[in-house]
Amino acid sequence: MKSYYFLPLMIFILLISNSLSGIVCADLPKIQILATGGTIAGTAQNQSELTLYKSGDLSVDALIASLPEMSTYAHVVGEQIYNIDSIEMTPDIWLTLANRVNKLLESPDIDGVVITHGTDTLEETAYFLNLVVKSEKPVVITGSIRPATALSADGPLNLLNAVILAASRDAAGKGVLILLNGQINGARDTTKTNTEMVETFKSADFGLLGYMDNEVPRFYRESLKLHTTATNFDVTSRTTLPKVDIVMLYPGVDRTAIDAFVANKTEGIIIASLGNGGYSKSIKAALQDVIDRGIPVVISSRTGTGIITSKDPEFISSDSLNPQKARILLMVALTQTHNLDEIEKIFRIC
Ligand SMILES: NC(=O)CC[C@H](N)C(=O)O
After folding, report:
1. Are strands 191-192 and 210-213 parallel, antiparallel or unpaired?
2. Using CA atoms, how far apart are residues 236 and 195, in angstroms rounded to an integer?
3. Which of 55, 66, 93, 133 is least enclosed, having the fewest CB within 10 Å?
4. Which whole-number Å values give the CA distances from 88 to 36, 139, 191, 278, 322, in the listed order?
5. Residues in the active site (predicted)?
6. How far is the CA of 331 from the centre of ligand 1 (A)?
7. Strand 297-301 with 216-219, pairing
8. 261: part of which helix (H) or strand (E)?
């Protein structure tokens, strides 16, 4: 071959091989969907039925088959880990889920995980995973308010957005993310605020982290609290979590619930206090008895927002965590320590 043909020929071969490899093995992220059930997999008798339906009815394969659009953004694999209404969620299931997420994310073959979940207890599962998942890879939890059979069902777009978010590099290292209604929220600060409206997950104290702009996640902030790889929690060898209970305060409340929880071997009590750490003298005496048994007491608030700055020093402040989130953190903290000062410190940083 004449030497002056050689360079153009090589350039031509390189260009062809590059574009062919781009077509043949499009380098899409690999996302595993762990389906746990919920309304996103729920079915009703007719399209106009929005509230009477069966949660956790459709399989993950059916959800994936109904959303071929996902394959534009990721190689999606489904796994039916449970198929329940999230009112049946338990700490044992959290442990199974955490271990499965950690195992998946250890694999170089998986770039991110999406969890489908009923919305009633989604915030608790999200915060638990936020504390115990040991990976920087994206973990996105989603659900829906309307069943899959409903007119204007919100599940399909939520699931598509969750897959896009989990496939995005921007979602890495931000802790577990809650994605519904085009809004990206952080697991620690977000709670279900409305019983049946699609804009229900909100962080009233600190705001959302970002929005989905069609197929582009746009982030504006992230939490300063420790999560995932930055925490020291390790639940891999656990089969149960410490038992922690919540007591709601109200005018005239007596110590019946507190004493019953202690008799039932509670390992920690969360108080949904009045305003900023308020409790009556008789409740204070009951809580003092709890502390004297070495059982930690964490003071949260029934108001839904704000931090606890006012409480007796022997009790622990939940900081800005609502009662159900404070319960998760105390359960996880108790897997590591029973020292009250150390638990107090955990509540400052997580
Ligand atoms: N919209 C929902 O997902 C709530 C309904 C159902 N109870 C659940 O949590 O699974």
Report:
1. unpaired
2. 34
3. 66
4. 11, 22, 18, 32, 21
5. 39, 119
6. 23
7. unpaired
8. helix 256-263
| Nearest-atom index, ligand 1, CA of 119 | 3
CB 43: neighbour CB atoms within 10 A? 17
pLDDT per residue over 213-226, tens digit each?
A: 999 999 999 999 99
Whole-number mean pLDDT of the chain? 94
- pTM of the complete model beyond 0.80: yes
Nearest residue to 64 via CA among 77, 47, 55: 77
> pLDDT exceeding 70 applies to what percent of the chain?
93
Would you say the CB of residue 124 lies under 6 angstroms from ligand 1?
no
Instruction: Give, using CA atoms, the residue closest to atom 1 of ligand 1.
Output: 145
Residues 144, 181: Cα–Cα separation, whole Å: 9
Q: Which of 40, 49, 120, 142 to mutate to test the pocket of ligand 1 (most atoms within 8 A of CB)?
A: 120
For residue 284, CA distances in Å to 25, 312, 341 come to 65, 9, 20
Residue 14 has pLDDT above 50, yes or no: no
Average pLDDT score over residue span 78-107 = 98
Atom index in ligand 1 nearest the CA of residue 55 equals 10
How far apart are alpha carbons 350 and 344 in whole angstroms? 10
Query: Annotated catalytic sites, by residue?
Result: 39, 119
- How far the first Cα of the chain sits from its last, in Å, is 69
The mean pLDDT value for 115-128 works out to 98
pLDDT for 70: 98
User: Could you give the ipTM of this predicted complex?
Assistant: 0.95
How far is 167 from 218, CA to CA, in rounded Å? 14
Condensed to tens digits (0 to 9), the pLDDT of residues 171-220 reads 999 999 999 999 999 999 999 999 999 999 999 999 999 999 999 999 99
